Protein 1
Amino acid sequence: MNTAPLSTCVFDDITEAIAGPGMGIFPGFLNPAQTAALRRDFATLPDWQLTPAGIGREHAHHNNERIRTDKTRWLDGTTPPQQDYLALMAGLQQSLNRELFMGLRDYECHYARYDEGDFYKKHLDAFRGRSNRRVTTVLYLNNDWQADQGGELLIYAEKGAQPSHRVMPEGGTLVCFLSERFPHEVLPARRQRLSIAGWFRIDDPVAPVLRL
C-alpha cells in the first residue's frame, strides 16, 4: 500500500475538524488501491482469527449480542498493508499533538466485519473522565457500496435524539470524532461490511474532559 499520494493537507483538515466541531468525514482519505490492499489483507484472515466483538474494557469486558454483533481482529502490523496504515495514523497522531497539544500516546485499531444483519447499537466509545480514548477513527474498506445496502454509521450530537450525520460506508472514507462527545451506532447491513475502527489514546484514564 503506497501512502505517498495522501497530502499532509488532509491531516490539516482533520485537525481543524477536531478543533472545531469535534468531528469530520473525509471521503477519499485512502485511494482505491490503498483501500483494496487493506481489504485483501482482511480477507486473508481465517474466520477462527475473528472474534465476536465485546463491550467494556478489562474486567468489565463481555459479549452482548443485543448491543453489537460484529466480529473483530486487532491490527498487529505484521503485514505491509497494516504497517503502512499504522504509519499513516502515526503521522495523524503527530499532527494532532503538534497543533492541538492533545497528548496522544498511542493508537490501537482492529478490523471489523459486519455480516448481513449485523449491527452496533447507539453507544459512546469513552465515558467522561473514565477512559483514555480521546479520538475515534473509522475507515471503510467496502467496494462499490450502494445506498440501499444499509450499514450506515449514525452520529449524534452530545444531547441529540436524532442523528446529526449519516455516513454510508464507502471504501476509503475516514470518519474522526472526539470519543467522549459523540454517541454513534451502526445500522444493520444488507451485505458484508468491512472497516477499521481505531482510537488515539492518552496515558491517564482519569484526565479532565477534553475541551478544545
Protein 2
Amino acid sequence: MKAKDIMTANVISIDPEQTVLQAARLMLQHHISGLPVVDSSGSLVGVLSEGDFLRRRETRTEHRRSRWLEFLMGPGKIAAEYTHSHGSKVGEVMTADVRTVDEDVALEDIVELMERHRIKRVPVMRGGKMVGIVTRSNLMHAMVSMARSAPAVAKDDAAIREQLMAEFKKQEWAPVAMVNVVVKDGVVELWGAIVDERQRAALKVAAENTPGVKGVKDHLVWIEPTSGMAIEPPDNAVRR
C-alpha cells in the first residue's frame, strides 16, 4: 500500500496568522491532535500539534531554570523557548521543520519515517502541494482493512506444519534446530528447548497466526543460560 491509499484527503489546516487559541478550538472541535499550517498561497509551512501546547504561559507551565543553566544554554535557546511559550500566533508556535512524503511512498517507508523522527503525522505532497495527511489512525485503519483479507487456510496438518516451520526458518530469533512441531487436528504442539523466555511468546504467536491452526500447546523447556537449569513450561493448556 502507498500513502495515497490510506491518507486522509480532506485535511483540516490553519493559517500561520491565526491565533493559538483558534487553533486549539479547531483541534478540540474536530477531535484531532495536530494541524498542518498552510499559508495564503497554499504552501505547507509547518505543523502545529498537541505537544506545542505543553509549555504555555496560559497554563503557567513555561520552562523555569536556574540562572546558571540558562547561561550554559545561551540566549538563543532561551529566546526560542520564550517565543514558543508566549507566542499568540500559530506561525510563532508551530514546528517549521516538517517531514513530508510523496503520495506514492510505500507504507513501510512512512512508518520508518514516523519512528525515526518520533512524529505522529506526515503530510502527503503532490507537486509541492499538500493533498492529504497520514496519521497513526490511518495506519490503524490500514491494519484492520488488510487483516480482513485472510490468507488461504492450509488443507491439512502436514501443510500447517510445513508453513509454520518455513516461518520459523525466516526468523533469526527462532531456535529452529532446538524446536519441533507436531500438528494434529489443527492443534499445534511445540516441543523442544528455548534459551530466552521471550522466544516462547514469539513461537506461540507464529503458530497462532498460521492459517488453519485451531490451538497451540506449549511443551517448550527453557534452558536458563547461567545455571543451565531446565525449566518446564507454565502450563500445557490449549490456546484458542
